[in-house]
Write the structure tokens for this entry.
Amino acid sequence: MDDASEHEDDTGDLLSTLEVIEAQPLATRAEAYDTLHDTLARRLEATPGAPS
């Protein structure tokens, strides 16, 4: 799989995740966004060549 296809899959997954989060009640939504933030931050830090 090339980088463009991987990026499209990640974007689709992110959009799906955001749609699920937005459908939740406000209190649950806040927790879900916090969890999503932590997940994305870990992925960014684990990316090769990411600035330190």
